[in-house]
Amino acid sequence: MVIYGLIRVLTMAEVQTYVIYDIEEDKTRNKVAEACKDYGLERVQYSTFLGSLNQNKRGELYLRLFKLLGKKAGKIIILPVCDKDVKQTRSIVNEPDGNEIPQP
Fold it and tell me: What 3-state DSSP class applies to 16?
């Protein structure tokens, strides 16, 4: 019983999850963005969202996005990232005024 409880806790843990998409149709693309926001994800690039989701929420989001895309042209990737890799993330951001902001 203790082992079962431990496994359940581990599978319910939230991990940083990227949703990356390339969808031709504006209406579908906007619906995908809204679905990501509904799950608490934040836009990090035009077609990329990031946030913490557990395995169940990722599965729910997958099904919702699968239905939204249907047979329309496009690609959606849901990518969970472990804490170790998240800590190694590096960003380079150029502001519109031309100043580069290094991200730790």
Answer: strand
Distance CA 30, CA 12 (A): 29
Rama region for 74: left / alpha / beta (φ>0; ψ in -120 to 50; rest): left
* Tens-digit pLDDT profile for residues 34-80: 999 999 999 999 999 999 999 999 999 999 999 999 999 999 999 99
Residue 31, both tokens: 């619906």
C-beta separation of 41 from 85 below 8 A: no
pTM: 0.78
Task: Decide if 92 contacts 103 (C-beta within 8 A).
Answer: yes
Report the CATH architecture of 14-83.
2-Layer Sandwich (3.30)
> Do residues 50 and 85 make contact, with C-beta atoms less than 8 angstroms apart?
no
66: tokens are 């699968």
Q: Match 């496009």 to its residue by tokens.
A: 74
